[in-house]
Amino acid sequence: MTASGRRLQELKRAVPEVTAEEAFAQQQRGAVLIDVREPDEVAAGSPTGAQRIVRGFLELRIEDLVPELDKPLLVMCAGGARSLFACHDLQGLGYSNVCSVAGGFGAWGSQGLPIEVPRVLSDIERERYSRHVSIPEVGEAGQLTLLESKVLLVGAGGLGSPAGFYLAAAGVGTLGIVDDDVVDRSNLQRQILHTDRRIGTPKVESAVSTLSALNPAIELRSYALRLTSANVEEIFSGYDVVVDGSDNFPTRYLVNDACVKLGIPNVHGSIFRFEGQVSVFWPGYEKRRGPCYRCLFPEPPPPELAPSCAEAGVLGILPGVIGTLEAVEAIKILLGVGDPLVGRLLLYDALSQSFTELAVEPRPDCAWCCEGAVIEEYPDYELFCAVHGG
Amino acid sequence: MSQATVRIPAPLRSFTGGAAEVAVEGDTVGEVLRSLSEIHSGLKQQILTDKDGVRDFVNIFVDNKNIRSLAGLESPVTEDAVIYIVPAVAGGGS
């Protein structure tokens, strides 16, 4: 007998085995089924609902997936040999309830048990996103999540530029961009999506041109229009996250109101000269009840207190910082990692180079998001801002 | 009386002669803001309503907490407290 054959005989005595049918039954009761085969094997099919960790990374990644050492684990390979080695290593890590699936995926398939063909990263995607795949919090599964995600950028200006660049680079599979403006020479001090040669062309067209050059594989949807009460729901529906990089109060309230109504997280950023604000307005966040934009600011300020960037000026790099922070929040939300800025307002002061975090709570009497608030139709935002702002 | 530092946001600095921070005495947030308005006239109506409430497009934070979640303008101010005035800002750099 070969050395590996002798070792397998030893492992068969040390590691409990279950049949494919037993494994399926245990999986239905909550046991974690782990397919440790290579990506090219998994690409042809894998048990439905299985976790897929390639054998070589099993010990390094299992704890992120299954932190509880007493959780029942079922390990599967192609024929039941590699899974014995894998189980032995998991026992060595301290997992106390580990079984190998006898006959492996071959037995699973021949018994007619459910199989899915998982979406896996192509070789090109694996290379492009390799620095993401290496992060335990992202990994292949996280990158696939990003590729299947949809983010809408409201505004392809100062904030939308860095957010668009980084979300496209990160492989967010679908990026929508709403902007009704054209590129102006005065934009180029900060709106890095655009170029000198594109002065006069629609910003969404310019943005699509830049972002498709960076990442040709993602879908870019352009909306060369102004958001209104009439079109907002049709445009927002289906997006996982909205990144607000708009430049006026009517749009900011409309974005908030539509996001609250549709249950979409609203990643907010705003800038003024050397200062910026970032938050995530998401009353529906499952881990804690967050405020909406109206909880923080029930009314817009009067126009003399709310000059636009055109009037007040803005440090060109400032939207780079704030828009990038918005992109970080969007990615965290999509991946479900970390702690988003829900109920937290982050202030950035470029002059003192300092961040301040302030607590923002939902208003119990918020007109738009409080419990019992009836959302019927959107108000006239121009009027709302003119009346309250007047 | 406690001495507090009030952080003035950029949109309101035209009322403080450009100052980003103003040191003001007071035992409550209301006292501090009223004293601040006496030093820098014109600031009061940007922050406070005629009925002595906080205007709806402004938030006041003391020790990083919104005074709405505390005791409003009656929220106590401790020595060396930092009070933030945070107005709504629309700009997105377009």
Please provide a written account of the structure:
The complex is a heterodimer of chains A (390) and B (94). Chain A has 390 residues and is an alpha/beta fold. Chain A folds into two domains: 3-120, Rhodanese-like domain (Oxidized Rhodanese, domain 1, 3-Layer(aba) Sandwich); 130-389, Rossmann fold (3-Layer(aba) Sandwich). Chain A contains 17 helices and 15 strands. In chain A, the strands form three sheets. Chain A has an eight-stranded mixed beta sheet, sandwiched between helices. In chain A, strand 12 (266-272) and strand 13 (275-281) form a beta hairpin. In chain A, helix 10 (160-169) packs parallel to helix 11 and helix 13 crosses helix 17. The longest helix of chain A has 18 residues, at 318-335. Chain A is elongated, with a radius of gyration of 26 Å. Chain A starts with a helix and ends with a helix. Chain B is of the alpha+beta class and 94 residues long. Chain B has a single domain, classed as Roll (Ubiquitin-like (UB roll)), CATH 3.10.20. Chain B is 16% helix and 24% strand. Chain B has two helices and five strands, in the order ββααβββ. In chain B, a hairpin with a 2-residue loop joins strand 3 and strand 4. The radius of gyration of chain B is 13 Å and the shape is globular. Chain B starts with a strand and ends in a 7-residue tail after the last strand. At the A-B interface, strand 12, helix 16 and strand 15 of A face strand 3, strand 4 and strand 5 of B.
Draw up the topology in text.
The complex is a heterodimer of chains A (390) and B (94).
Chain A: H1 3-14, E1 17-18, H2 20-28, E2 32-35, H3 39-42, E3 46-47, E4 51-52, H4 58-65, E5 73-76, H5 82-93, E6 98-101, H6 104-110, E7 115-116, H7 123-128, H8 130-133, H9 139-147, E8 150-154, H10 160-169, E9 174-178, H11 203-214, E10 219-223, H12 232-236, E11 241-244, H13 249-262, E12 266-272, E13 275-281, H14 293-296, H15 309-312, H16 318-335, E14 344-349, E15 354-359, H17 381-389
Parallel strand pairs in A: 1-6, 2-4, 2-5, 5-6, 8-9, 8-11, 9-10, 11-12
Antiparallel strand pairs in A: 3-7, 12-13, 13-14, 14-15
Helix pairs in contact in A: 10-11, 10-16, 13-17
Chain B: E1 3-7, E2 21-25, H1 29-39, H2 44-47, E3 58-62, E4 65-66, E5 82-87
Parallel strand pairs in B: 1-5
Antiparallel strand pairs in B: 1-2, 3-4, 3-5
